[in-house]
Amino acid sequence: MREQARVTDLQAYQKPEFSHAEVLEITGLTADTLLTWYKRGVVITSEGTEAKGRGHRRKYSEHDVTRLMIMKLLAPTIPLPLASAMAGSASLMVLLASQMAAFRETRDELDEMPGASLLAYLDSAGKPRFDLVGDAHYEGLDPLPAGGISAWMRNAEVSAVTVLDINMIMFKLYAAFVNVRVRHWAR
Question: What is the rounded distance in angstroms from the CA atom of residue 23 to the CA atom of residue 37?
Fold first, then answer.
């Protein structure tokens, strides 16, 4: 009989637990970049209204860290406010992928998980857009047309697209979260 793995619930996903230094380590962001994003108002944390002033230590949730990681990946090609909005949608897909992965027991089962991607691009009028797409087995998302990304780009008249693989982001973040938590337990 298969043992059911713990599924991350939304409240636990939004519980602030990571320090500023841990977030920088997990995401690879610099302190200056993160501070600049705060000053521009594009970083939203699960803490809600933050205390201001000296001595306040900001804490980040898994959701916050996921959003920051996705923003970092999108920021070089997409305007920052839009990258923030896209990251919000995509981070929920990362949560869904982690819930699906929790029920897989072997590497083969993980390899068979349906895939999802975030496509960030400029449309034919030059406006920034994004789509969440899934492979043929992903319910609730539009699948890519036959021919994959290249066919989609031709049909949408898109010359460049940033493609983020949701499952790969989930696996990378999961490993980083585990590393940070193991260090906490070792103290």
Answer: 14
Interatomic CA distance for residues 42 and 81, integer angstroms: 6
Q: Running DSSP on this structure, what letter comes out for residue 18?
A: B
The DSSP line for 120-161 is: EEE-TTS-EEEEEEE-TT-TTSEEPPTTHHHHHHHHHT-S-E
Residue 44: exposed, middle, or buried by beta-carbon count in 10 A (0-12, 13-18, 19+)?
middle
The half-sphere exposure of 101 on its side-chain side, counting CA atoms within 13 A, is: 20
120-141 confidence digits (pLDDT tens): 888 888 788 888 888 766 677 7
Does an H or E element contain 163, and which? strand 161-165
pLDDT of residue 149: 84
- DSSP string spanning 74-119? HTTTS-HHHHHHHHHHHHHHHHHHHHHHTT--SHHHHHTSPPEEEE
Count how many residues are written for the chain. Answer: 187
Residue 181: predicted pLDDT: 82
Distance CA 144, CA 34 (A): 34
| Domains in the chain with CATH codes | 10-113+167-186 (1.10.1660.10)
| Dihedral angle sign, alpha carbons of residues 32, 70, 64, 127 | positive
